[in-house]
């Protein structure tokens, strides 16, 4: 052990001893494990120092300590991320006394997927008995399912190794179009994760030559690889057909692999998932359907909230007397009008929920008007839908052959002097010139080229920079295909119509700023705006609100700043606000629940008694909250207010998680806006407060999930 490891060990043992004076052994250990999960001790210690120090602590050896520690599996999973942090002796002990906990730690850490791990090899060699044999057998079966797809991926990539990045993207664009004609509920986005994986794998092996795209090289590549598919008499059709088939096999293999990765994530992160080794039976299954139902409820909530913000945007447009104005040409008016509504919706949502300002500053210092960025994205989507996807669908209906439909679309474009190929491209000045028309204002009647440049920067993924990043720092988040739908290669900007015409611009913008660029300097001020915006919404309903209250020290420990403390008519709210990104996978939700929300719940647990004492003794605080000296002290309702919807209504470590959007709907009493925008007959929706708004009724609405009653 290093000196830093030993100091961490001493810290955890001292913390456990301190907690043991106040709690039963299991609870004391649980408190100590939360210190580890919260990256304590602070200072110049690495995550590895803490993991080695925690694993060396003596409290693991007493079974009564571990049995009552709810966080033991999660904590041990973090330790198992370091292969030699846990001694074999401790693994033996945990396997003998806490096998269930150890198996969940293995699942949470995905240790079984690291087949070269010395810890995993040791466990496989030394643990026996039916339960362990079944567990190892299930882990083996899950990994064996990946092998044929890995071989198919390797074979296909070998056949395609001579293709440049540009040529691979050309074939992918043709295949993606062919999926649009399939009767799928989500034809555009179904395989986006597959294409992302293929592109990222290609970027790992790209050379500098892949990014030196000249006009001559572009023309030569398209003539050889794309034109023969669209115009069969123009080149080597057989060669292109073979390459297209190899890309199709690669897509199929990657799709299957990602599907099976989903099964592994289900096994690792869904507590409802059980396993078995029985002939003819699936190796993993759900004990109940609660996890599936929860995921479906989240999807339904997201859909309803999409309509909610659209209703708000329509109301803003109506109030501004824009409802009757013709936007653009008469034939494009409806599409443009919808794009304007969606842009206003996105701006409103991003400002209320994520605290964005009128202008957004990127990591490289570029500033972009939020409304301009969203409007450009929505108008781009409308353009690609009208000029590419709808004509393609008509031609496909007539011919029944995707390649024929693509050829006709491209040919019609050539006749009009427009690029209607499956993948579009233009040099950066041309792209800026096109975007410039969407930045017209009183100040810039012909559009603002600098604003257009900023918009392009906001939505662009530089594939050379991304190639360098994933080789040097592979764990950094990479932009998803739709999060930055302009792809820079050399001096050219490329777009896929099947992405640009169907993307969710709102999710793309939020995740572009929060997932891909989590270290932007603006993030702190945005989080503060979320808090102050929520405070103002509560004040409009009569609450007295204190933002950023700093309670007195609780002994030697600082309980931390209280984000929002609110009072109205004897109801006190203690709110911990968390702002992140929009999650799309089970693993992302699990990480959010066990990291951000778990930590927020711990903060509330620490702050709740301190705030209660402060309400008793701090007359200044009581005055700020509008509480007289004679008022009884109510027990605060403590909630985690989350910008995400995924864990809305759940209870984490004893504290309710409530979505910021749900609070918005409840405070404004607008459940009537949680219905489809195009619904002809508006359903009669009763007020959440039939007897008028009150603080206690508001608490009831939130804690009973009344916003969703009858809607899910």
Automatic annotation (TrEMBL):
- Its name, as the record gives it, is NERD domain-containing protein
